[in-house]
Amino acid sequence: MEGETTLATELDGLLAMARELEARVDGDQGAPGAARELCAELAASVHRAVRLAGSEGNAGGRASVNGRLRSGRKAAAAARAQVRVASMQDLGPLDDGLSWRKYGQKDILGAPYPRAYFRCTHRHSQGCQATKQVQRAAADPLLFDVVYHGAHTCAQATALLAGTEQQPPAPFGQEQQSSPAAAPEGMQWPEEPFTPPSFPSSPAGCYTPGNSWCQLAGNYGYAAGGGLGADMEFDELFWNM
DNA sequence: CACATTTGACCGCT
DNA sequence: AGCGGTCAAATGTG
């Protein structure tokens, strides 16, 4: 409602591209050439949108984050982006190709499902401070909200990023993935008709480097507030394209 | 035996 | 005071 015109426009175009991409991928999964190009454009648009949202002085929905920064408050430790990507790939579990170690689970106020906290297994070995939060969507139990934050310094991440030209496991950002037939590493929900835990953390391979993901759906939930922790401050946004 | 996961408690911040 | 996040000890599994 405020001055989100630019951002809205970007997002609108992005949505359109996403649709096109979705159609392309759906119709031709053997030749992701065009899809890939669209993906690039899409990524660029997203990048721009996020940048606009993170710009100072911008009155966007997230502009307050910057203006809210108080002196002495440094949030460089964990940057989060608001990129919500819903990838419906049954074959693509939530495994990012890295090793995550669950270190806690907490029930979130207002959320019917608990939130699991994961950490890089190499945190003690290589000092990888990367962390990941996996939570289930409130209205869509089939959707998993995976929030990555922190920087991956372990060789595993480096190798992964170097081996793939894409950026599935973005350095930072909120990624909403959906795995209808695949459950995360380990999360036990109150009532789950799906596959229980027991996710052997599939090693690299299920990633399918080349075919990659691709089904953008949904909208950009900028965690619009409501009072449920809509406080997001992202100072730096890294996006490799 | 080592590693990963689980659960509870503690701490910090809002 | 409440919520979110992390740590630490215990347990289970491979």
Automatic annotation (TrEMBL):
Protein name in UniProt: WRKY domain-containing protein
Subcellular location: Nucleus
GO MF: DNA-binding transcription factor activity; sequence-specific DNA binding
WRKY domain segment(s): 89-152
Top-level taxonomic group: Eukaryota
TM region positions: none
Region (Disordered): 166-201
Main location: nucleus
PROSITE patterns: WRKY (PS50811)
Any GO BP annotation: response to hydrogen peroxide
Gene3D superfamilies: WRKY domain
Family: Belongs to the WRKY group III family.
PANTHER family linked to this entry: TRANSCRIPTION FACTOR WRKY19 (PTHR32096:SF55), WRKY TRANSCRIPTION FACTOR 30-RELATED-RELATED (PTHR32096)
Alphabetic keyword roster: DNA-binding, Nucleus, Transcription, Transcription regulation
Family matches, as Pfam families: WRKY (PF03106)
Gene Ontology cellular component list: nucleus
